[in-house]
């Protein structure tokens, strides 16, 4: 005779098959979603009870683990999701957890569907990875119940949620400090979208670094897009205005690559005339640059490891709250000279 505790736990997919409805319908019915017909709710609840799965299962703390963690990403280009995935696997592997990967392609409805699918597989927790670092809306509890969720790279707007992201303030300080250590004192700054969170936090780091060294930017920072064409245009404006500068910090590597092309097109030598530094360590932009770019690496693999570790804590009943920031690293290449040796 089989012990009840040894029987496979029914999933939402089991209920969907038995009731001849979709998994998303089961999820909405069990959550008493207002958009679900009353007759459908009754059917789903009846089938769930027959199979031994009741809506209250979502509201109780788990005492068993499936050994699976869901990772949902909005990223289509592999950054930051690929290094985050690698870091998360490094942390989860020794703990006998595997990752189920789902891509929502930046579509809110598809994200909901992907989460419903992962929840139907009884994942122990969710990592939600955003391509953008701007604040995002939290996942509705009606989808996840008590299953722990950690937001990665793009933090949740709810301060009670746990979010793990890059320390852009520290990263920007690293960039300015490096240029100053290289002997550059007339440093210009080219930013991205003016009202983006990444821009605002990098500007805080820039201002802190200049203040610590008793310096000011060579020109007011310029803001535009995050692409190569904006880097070209912004550098052209600096040169057109006749502003003398010997260092240039760009808020991402695409901007830095565009600026580098403009500087070299005007006959300037990098790094002899102008030292250039980017941000993100995005290899697609760096490897094809005329001069390999020095950059600040946001440490996405470490972000993935930290996010997985705090998710494991939550799975064990010890949730974290608030925002955890991971410091970046400076990666020096040929676009900046070696720092001057310290004075004796």
TrEMBL record:
Natural source organism: Bifidobacterium vansinderenii
Keyword match Translocase: no
The name this protein goes by in its record: LacI family transcriptional regulator
Keywords, sorted A to Z: DNA-binding, Transcription, Transcription regulation
Residue ranges occupied by any HTH lacI-type domain in the UniProt entry: 10-56
Keyword Transcription regulation: yes
Chain segments annotated as coiled-coil in the UniProt record: none
Alphabetized Pfam families for the sequence: LacI, Peripla_BP_3
Record GO terms (molecular function): DNA-binding transcription factor activity; transcription cis-regulatory region binding
């Amino acid at each position: 005779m089989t012990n009840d505790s040894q029987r496979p736990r029914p999933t939402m997919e089991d209920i969907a098959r038995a009731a001849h409805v979709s998994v998303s319908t089961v999820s909405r019915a069990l959550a008493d979603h207002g958009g679900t017909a009353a007759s459908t709710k009754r059917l789903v609840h009846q089938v769930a009870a027959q199979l031994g799965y009741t809506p209250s299962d979502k509201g109780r703390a788990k005492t068993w683990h499936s050994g699976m963690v869901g990772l949902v990403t909005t990223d289509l280009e592999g950054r930051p999701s690929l290094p985050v995935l690698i870091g998360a696997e490094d942390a989860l592997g020794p703990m006998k957890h595997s990752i189920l990967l789902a891509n929502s392609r930046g579509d809110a409805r598809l994200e909901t569907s992907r989460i419903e699918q992962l929840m139907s597989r009884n994942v122990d927790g969710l990592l939600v990875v955003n391509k953008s670092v701007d604040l995002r809306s939290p996942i509705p509890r009606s989808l996840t119940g008590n299953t722990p969720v950690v937001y990665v790279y793009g933090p949740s707007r709810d301060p009670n949620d746990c979010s793990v992201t890059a320390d852009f303030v520290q990263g920007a300080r690293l960039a300015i400090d490096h240029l100053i250590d290289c002997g550059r004192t007339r440093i210009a700054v080219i930013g991205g979208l003016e009202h983006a969170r990444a821009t605002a936090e990098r500007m805080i780091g820039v201002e802190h670094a200049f203040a610590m060294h008793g310096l000011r930017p060579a020109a007011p920072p310029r803001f535009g897009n995050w692409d190569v064409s904006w880097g070209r245009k912004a550098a052209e404006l600096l040169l057109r205005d006749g502003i003398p500068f010997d260092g240039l910090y760009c808020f991402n590597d695409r901007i830095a690559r565009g600026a580098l092309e403009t500087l070299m097109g005007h006959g300037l030598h990098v790094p002899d005339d102008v030292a250039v530094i980017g941000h993100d360590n995005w290899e697609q932009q760096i490897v094809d640059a005329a001069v390999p770019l020095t950059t600040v690496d946001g440490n996405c693999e470490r972000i993935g490891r930290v996010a997985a570790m705090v998710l494991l804590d939550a799975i064990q009943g010890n949730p974290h709250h608030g925002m955890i920031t991971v410091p970046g690293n400076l990666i020096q290449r040929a676009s900046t000279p070696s720092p001057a040796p310290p004075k004796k």
